[in-house]
């Protein structure tokens, strides 16, 4: 969902009288995130585009896919996935805990 689509969805629910907490629960994001998006919208339409996701949705999948491709170092996986080595370590450590 794009930033504009999310803003439209939030504004519709706001017009229905829902609180930011209720909106967050329906959309599946945090209440502070809803407030952040609304604040950016008040600053102008282009500000909404600058509101970034806290974490790329594909980061974990990209790291795990890179790790499964072969015997790569954390630095190589980080370069492939476009994240830091510490992020790679954290994701791989979490993945092992679930096994």
TrEMBL record:
Biological processes, Gene Ontology terms: regulation of DNA-templated transcription
Gene3D superfamilies reported for this sequence: Homeodomain-like, lambda repressor-like DNA-binding domains
Domain of life: Bacteria
Matching InterPro entries: HTH_LacI, Lambda_DNA-bd_dom_sf
Chain ranges of the HTH lacI-type domain: 76-93
Any GO molecular function: DNA binding
Protein name per Swiss-Prot or TrEMBL: Regulatory LacI family protein
